[in-house]
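Fold this sequence, please.
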Amino acid sequence: MSKRKFRLRPRFFVFSVIVLAALSFAVASLFGSFKPSAKPPHTSHPAPLHTPLIVSTIKGSFNPASVNLPIPLTEFSVVATPPGAVALVGGYTKGRRINPIVYTLTNTGVVADGRMISPHANGNTIDLSGRVQYVGGIDAVDKPSSRIQPVSLNGSLSDPPNQWLRTPLSAMATASAGATAYVVGGQTAKASTDIIYRIRLGSHPKPWSRLPEALSHPMAAVYRGMLWVIGGYSEAGGYSSAVYTVNLQSGQVTAVAQLPLGLANGAITEYHHDLWILGGSTPSGETADTFVILPSGSAIHPGPKLPQAVQADSAFVLDGRLWVGGGTTANGSPIAQLWQYRPQVKPAPRQPDKKKTATAPGSVARRPR
């Protein structure tokens, strides 16, 4: 019996090739779909973190201070002049007249201590290691200035002499830390700006960083080793509720939180290691609200309300107490009233009553030896 030879037919060969090709494509597609996803690109400007208000409210109250401003003032600037005093610089008084006098305020009263070389309002002060300067502002004919002028204190002028920003500026925020100061946002002759200037003692002011949006009347402070920029008015989006931090080394801006409402032109200061925001302007008008950022920075706490809704007010710490006042009320008039914050003191825990030793009837209690 002869063996049959196996012969590969052409039709079977073609069919096998087609089946193998289809299986290979299916397997490749299956495993290709399990490729790891690419990592998201790094961004230096994270999206805002919506930090909610928490239930706990900072307890206390604001009460009339023993000393008021010498005249009604709004859009004025305050700078500490240790020991135990602050200087009140610039601002508008009644009738939108510019205040040319530099006043020194203490716990016992207020004295006229100098004059501005060129009276301005709606600017701000900086403190370069005790050398007080007034930045920009608007003069008596509503012309913005780019001048950084020394402020006269105790009958003498601070040095160095005049310096200049690159453009006229008003409605800006300022913050100082040692021999360095920052000028944040503001209003130029044409529009608001997003530029942050850094000014160092002995050098000319230079644009240093930029905010994510152009803002006028923001609030700024150096706090916990960072520059904090809060709120402001944006021509594009109205009142801002954003809270930014700016790295003092790199200038990188990070959105870290949001206020519960848009806010501009309020007062800001550090008090007992907390950052306080007091009063200001909102879409509904002036506000008496206050907010507190604690050192942890994890939440924004509501604080006690001011006795009156104000904007363009100022806040400062004098002799260990938080002061706030001045500004414009709902009727558009500046005020001279100052208030002091009084924290709510928790009552001391009650000591438990000492138990009396019970004695049986007719017996005499023994004295302890």
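Residues 60-343 form a domain with the Neuraminidase fold (CATH 2.120.10.80). Residues 1-6, 25-50, 356-369 have pLDDT under 50 and may be disordered.
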